[in-house]
């Protein structure tokens, strides 16, 4: 089988030489790219091609990594690609990753693409728990990641459940608390709503500024042994070398800043560190494999060079990049302010339109009610007029009957002379007729009064009808009134804005003013750091009661102890470096 594999590798090599090219696949944090490379290309040729494709100028942070026998290796810039221990199968897969980390992301990362690539890589490491992150910081970081993806929080758009498919928290944090996904989303959204007004770049930078204070941020760990054969961890990062207990990757036992180290070398599996103080003995340690020593040396040299570079005056290229970045930030700030003003005018115009629509609906309702009142008044007037006419006819009829009764009474008086008996009967009939006539007269009078009352009601109904007509005319005149012009009325109908003729003239005074504003923002950020700590403490207090302590990992327990003792990444590093180099070397050898 070994001979068959060797024959296959030899065949691949032969085919490459014949083809004069080979294919590679570059995997970034966002996408994959494939290139056809020449046989003679060195690592730098391929690396430069990738950087040009990405538009990346801060190349010193990055590298191309690949796997060799379960070990991470980085492509060497000065050697041919095919002369290195790269995979033989095409396309050859490389991962474009950050190899070195900045001490201060806000000051060192200039380009937006650099910042974005760091944000994606650090977020991935936190979610995969390669970087330990406490729960309260995880929630805050998740809120900035959400803001970087979705922009400003809008309750009409970002409704409950919109984060259901997002991976935002490490599984360790989720399992540590008795909280449902809805409860986690509610807390993340509460923090997310407070970030309103930030751009994607600003949200990503806030994420990095919080992440860079985590104990395991930017540290590469390697298993080593000292002279006594004690198992230890070597940590290499932007500040120096750190020695850890294998069970505690958070708190180093001793540290050696880069400015105290004179020389680094290795022979086979033995690694030698020479301190700057020549009176101090060198200290040595052993690693598991030669390949690991090579990787440690690469990381030490690169981090040491960047450490010294940060403490020198920036090169012309970096100064130019920073100047361009400042101008770009100033231009974006002006653009954001302009867009904010346009957005404000749009919102004012929409509010004015909504108010006019509401007023129009109100006037329409009032007009409808006035029309109904007028209709009821007309119906009432018609009804009262009909009743008055009926009452008048009844009064005439009663008057006619009363006249007939009076005539009958006179006739009875004339015939009353015919006899006593007839007279008595006639008197009785006359009395009955008089009573009937009196009753008829009273009824006629009552009907006359009722007719008079109905005439008065009719008059009042007509007065009410007249008032209703006047009210309708008044409402109609209000509806026809055109309000005075509003500044927002001058906006175009579709509220679109052309960018073709947009230009910005940055004068020296403007740049000075913008620079002062940027410096002011830095001061304000320092003042807000206290608010950030209070926010983290508040988040921790909110979820502390739901924590299941039996599920805490060893690193969680160590982090809690450090927090209770007031120990942070930077304070511990400062404390360790206050000791003399000689005492730290002696301490390392005695471990």
From TrEMBL:
Coiled coil: 515-552
Subcellular localization: Cell membrane; Cell projection; Cytoplasm; Nucleus
Keywords recorded for this protein, A-Z: Cell membrane, Cell projection, Coiled coil, Cytoplasm, Membrane, Nucleus, Phosphoprotein, Ubl conjugation
SUPFAM superfamilies reported for this sequence: Moesin tail domain, PH domain-like, Second domain of FERM, Ubiquitin-like
Region (Disordered): 328-348
Domain FERM: 22-311
Gene Ontology terms, MF aspect: actin binding
Protein's membrane topology: Peripheral membrane protein
Alphabetized InterPro entries for the sequence: Band_41_domain, ERM, ERM_C_dom, ERM_FERM_C, ERM_helical, Ez/rad/moesin-like, FERM/acyl-CoA-bd_prot_sf, FERM_2
GO CC terms of this entry: cell projection; cytoplasm; nucleus; plasma membrane
Binding positions (a 1,2-diacyl-sn-glycero-3-phospho-(1D-myo-inositol)): 76-79, 294
Official protein name in the record: Merlin
Gene designation per UniProt: NF2
